[in-house]
Amino acid sequence: IRCWSNIPFITMPLSRAHGKSFAHRSELKHAKRIVVKLGSAVVTRGDECGLALGRLASIVEQVSMLQNQGREMMIVTSGAVAFGKQRLRHEILLSQSVRQALHSGQSQLKDMAIPVLEARACAAAGQSGLMALYEAMFTQYSICAAQILVTNLDFHDEQKRRNLNGTLHELLRMNIVPIINTNDAVVPPPEPNSDLQGVNVISVKDNDSLAARLAVEMKTDLLIVLSDVEGLFDSPPGSDDAKLIDIFYPGDQQSVTFGTKSRVGMGGMEAKVKAALWALQGGTSVVIANGTHPKISGHVITDIVEGKKVGTFFSEVKPAGPTVEQQGEMARAGGRTLAALQPEQRAEIIYRLADLLTDQREEILLANKKDLEEAENKGRLALPLLKRLSLSTSKLNSLAIGLRQIAASSQDSVGRVIRRTRIAKDLDLEQVTVPIGVLLVIFESRPDCLPQVSALAIASGNGLLLKGGKEAAHSNQILHHLTQEALSIHGVKDAVQLVNTREEVEDLCRLDKLIDLIIPRGSSQLVRDIQKAAKGIPVMGHSEGICHVYVDTDASVEKVTRIIRDSKCEYPAACNALETLLIHRDLLRTPLFDQIIDMLRVEQVKIHAGPKFASYLTFSPSEVKSLRTEYGDLECCIEVVDSVQEAVEHIHKYGSSHTDVIITENEKTAEFFLQHVDSACVFWNASTRFSDGYRFGLGAEVGISTSRIHARGPVGIEGLLTTKWLLRGDNHVVSDFSEHGSMKYLHESLPLPQRNTN
């Protein structure tokens, strides 16, 4: 028998067979029966006298939501002592003629002697009010609640244990939320009893062990322990090096230093961990999280059940590899080492990776074949995504050529001086290029993205975290292995990490202390989700690729169909494919217009008519639902405009600032279009498909950015660099440059060092 917090625990409960807890957070959404333990600091107000009503109402709302989803919810609550203390203080103040004290001044009220309030009396005065409050709150959601008070004796007597178990099961069967608390009105005084001394200190019983016991007795799937800290830290919270532990495993407690207990209550984090491990041993999953933080308390319970990365999750299954936090730290350290290498050494790594892509071609294609077969068997990928997933000999050869371009162009990317200024005599300032830090690149169905992005990160000296789609798991694994093999020639294997753990994308986007830039590569929905989820981390990319081609009245007949066919049909799933074709009104019912329509029909492109185009036709194609549609397939919208000015206005209103094209032989019209369209890429008489890092001569790209800050368009090495300032002086101080100082500012521009153009 183990004894924690005065409640005896039998190592393996008699009433429950040994179950198995959830191994991963993502499985918590399957939890059916859940216990929510509300710590004293969660239930009570900051002044430790009375209840935090707003916080409690939010918790009741979340519990009600989960209960109405068909789950079985139970609450182990504190708060009776705090509620009772509030009522008793009020009565004591009134009995001591508080009205007279108010008339004589607020200071006298503060100095009035209030006797020590005995905890059991406070509990007796507060239990009924606390339960009435819960009932009133749950009634708002058409849910009935029932109160159960327990003492230590209820766990000593086997019959009482069975009765308690039966009562709880019957309440759950009737869709009633049991609210359980220790009967503080009759329990022995807590140890040490000095905890009750003073007006501004309250003491309520520690319910951690009670919650764990009930969770295991009731064969609960999940125990959520809410306190006033974010979870379990590797050192006392508040210390400089304290880090939140995402997942805690049995045996890890030996390496953890526990801090002091919370501001109220008898339990500390050590008691919570012991109770959590005992529950975990009994087959109940446990999460310890913060229930007091105003930004998260309104959804902390539902976030935990949804599997989001909140608090500390207790698991018996320890992954074989490092955690994503550890990978982030490894990538940062590896990236700094990578940036310190000579440019020739970084280039040598990329050349080696290019060679491996061709030398290991058969192994790569075999792994890719497994991914394709699994995707086809499961039927979970549309045809455009299957095309993106597929690798071929020609694709690998193109990748190798692109990587060699990157290696050749990266010789002076990091540490390049872009500005030199002489501030004063012997005081010179330089602005030099440096890596951004750690990049997180999230990509779907595109294994060829992995070596491209890796090469760009290596060339720019950045650490890299890669999160690929599970549909390309086999391909990504071998490509990452080859990348690390290339990195190993200069001892920087850790600089590029592939995240293989079951991390949700939303959780990765919260690692603002580990990641400096997020680059999504995938569907517009993926990009929008990441932009929404990223908290404090910049996101580089575009959410949509709504690219336009405008056919002017002076367009060449020979060029029009070639450019439109290539823009739409060469690779319709690409983000730089044509989605909306704008036709000048004067071209309607001309041979050129007929050629365009015939070509699209031959290529089996489904046409959607814009509102204006539809008005010119007796029998028109299906009218477009939205002019802001990225089809990503052999479909496009045709709309009519009256002029190049109207074409520009249409693009600005419905486009995504990605890539837009004009086809015309009129140079003046073309220049107007090029100068006035506010997109990342604007072309004249060229296919939209040229909007690509490889075709621009960048070697490859990490993506196409439609942002107006930092990088725009296809992003190569330059887009993955930032700058820092280096100031070299000789005993210079600012006071020397004051009005009566001995020095004057010069601010002379100095010539830049000769660039290496080899």
UniProtKB/TrEMBL annotation:
One Gene Ontology cellular component annotation held by this UniProt entry: mitochondrial matrix
Location(s) in or outside the cell: Mitochondrion matrix
Domain Aspartate/glutamate/uridylate kinase span(s) in chain numbering: 32-290
Entry EC number(s): 1.2.1.41, 2.7.2.11
Enzymatic reactions: L-glutamate + ATP = L-glutamyl 5-phosphate + ADP; L-glutamate 5-semialdehyde + phosphate + NADP(+) = L-glutamyl 5-phosphate + NADPH + H(+)
The UniProt record lists the keyword Transport: no
The protein's role, per its UniProt record: Bifunctional enzyme that converts glutamate to glutamate 5-semialdehyde, an intermediate in the biosynthesis of proline, ornithine and arginine.
Name listed for the protein in its UniProt record: Delta-1-pyrroline-5-carboxylate synthase
UniProt source species: Grus americana (Whooping crane)
Lineage start: Eukaryota, Metazoa, Chordata, Craniata, Vertebrata
